[in-house]
Amino acid sequence: MNEVWNLDPLYKGFDDPAFDADMGKLRELAAQVCEFAAKLPQAEPLDGLREGVRLMEELTQLINRLGGYASLRQSADTRNTECGSKLGQVMQIASSCAGADAAFREWAAKLPDLEELLERDEVLREYRYFFHNIRLDASHLLGAKGEEIAARLGLSGGNAWADLQGYLTSTVKVSYRGEVTNLSAIRNMAYDPDPAVRKDAYEAEIACYDAIKDPVAHALNAIKLETISDCALRGFASPLDRTLEYSRMKRETLEAMLGAMDEYLPKFWQYLKAKGKALGHENGLPWYDLFAPMGSTDRKYTTQDAKDILVKLFSTFDQELADMVARAFDNAWIDFYPRNGKVGGAFCAGVEALGESRILTNFDGQFGDVVTLAHELGHAFHNQCIRDHRPLNRDYSMPVAETASTFNECVVMAAAIRDAQSDEEKLALIEGQLQDATQIICDIYSRFRFEAQVFENREARFMDADTLCSFMLEAQKQSYGDGLDENCLHPYMWVCKSHYYGPTFYNFPYAFGGLFARGLYARYQQEGADFVPKYKKLLYTTTIATAEDTAKVAGIDLTDKDFWRGALQTIADQIDLFCELVK
């Protein structure tokens, strides 16, 4: 089986004549878009809408193809400067259209009979929700020139600072037991069955951040100040308000979810203390044992094992999903293993030009790595479910972005626990699932609290690395309570987590997705095969409806705290079972 993904169906390389040809097309198309925008005031409304949509569709598809290729190449090897250079060229051309795009949106938003015009054209009718959001966002636009300026400055501002964080964390040298390794590899050791390895790896990881903490602190400060300035210029009350509006999600939904999470946090602390005690710790679980495997976890998995397991399990849920998973493995959609220069973590990127996805992981042979693959393949299935939408209708908001991925985890883990051959195996599986649940509840809550505190302080002062570490420790103490040993936390989580350097508040969507998916899975358990078409329709709807309206497809009210309590209770039940098993 392949070790790295195959990008050749896009381009054979940056020297591929097709890449140069498409770059030329992009420049020509960008010029056409700008010329079109300049003539908009004289355009007939229906003709202007049709031509604007046509140009924006073509522009979006070309940018996604070129920029996506360069971005994937860069993620696989951040040391390759040509990748960053080519990606920068694509984004520079794209930014030159930001003013034209803003002009089109402003013009469309002001059309008094916009709804009637959309009904007169078959293509435009499919964009009713798209134009509804254009009207909603119109009050926050900076004008054609302002949007172009913001886009251009972003390339050397926030985007550049984010690239710096990615470069530093992917290339920092980690000294471990007399050898030098990388951050991805050392963080993977947190899952090692040997407690000495976990502790030594944790100490090596913490030590390595001293070399990069100051430049990364500058990156975080710069990005957050840019966000604050952008929100003020656009008339948003706060960065969180901006995130919620762009997420097409109500504050009432967020408050209902966080309120339910607050109620259930002590249950997670109970799990952490029980795990800590089982591992010989009396004062809560030390950070380095958060991911310590328990039960029967001796087995190592190959990528072929992962394929066999996932295809078999998903075929019990939906054959379309199982077939897609098989194609992902067979057709080299996946870059599996950690290596120097490769970014850490895991992600899935839709490749719309191919009607496929590409997945990056740092596979180390643990069962958790199989679950990670299931998670990312859930994103790929989500991409497949929205493929029939028109090009401008394929973006889903952050809160619903984790729905399909976490639902996949539920399918895999429920089957694995059900088929466990012994209490030891069942303990290992349940503990693995509780690890993940604790991440999307306790850890995500700590990230949310940390980011909120950073925004509260950034406008008034620069926060150095020590200050950021103190914020992180306080957020972890609030979210993990007495479940963790307060003398052994992780003050540098703000350095290694790329989420702080991308979309604002890209944390609570993980809790949303995890709990929403668990609520949906509970419905599947009740309804069986009849639920599957609803589930696919729900995924299809994510790009053309608000989070609340999407949930209504499955009969769910997201502003009702009881829905979130129900999802959390499914985890609480597993915690009770875990506590019994470790006695």
What key attributes describe this structure?
mainly alpha, 26 helices, 3-stranded mixed sheet, single chain, 583 residues, two-stranded antiparallel sheet
Question: Please, could you describe this protein's structure?
Answer:
It is a single chain. The chain has 26 helices and five strands. The protein is mainly α and 583 residues long. The strands form two sheets. The chain has a three-stranded mixed β-sheet with strand order 3-5-4, sandwiched between helices. A two-stranded antiparallel ribbon has the order 1-2. It starts with 16 loop residues before the first helix and ends with a helix. The model has no long low-confidence stretch (mean pLDDT 94).
**pLDDT average, as an integer?**
94
Tally the helices.
26
Indicate the structural class: mainly alpha
Residues in helices, as a percent range:
55-70%
**What global shape is seen?**
globular
Low-confidence stretches: none
How many whole angstroms does the radius of gyration measure? Answer: 24 Å
Strand order of the largest sheet: 3-5-4
Overall number of strands = 5
Major β-sheet, in short?
3 strands, mixed
Give the N-terminus to C-terminus distance in angstroms. 42 Å
Task: Give the percentage of residues in beta strands.
Answer: under 5%
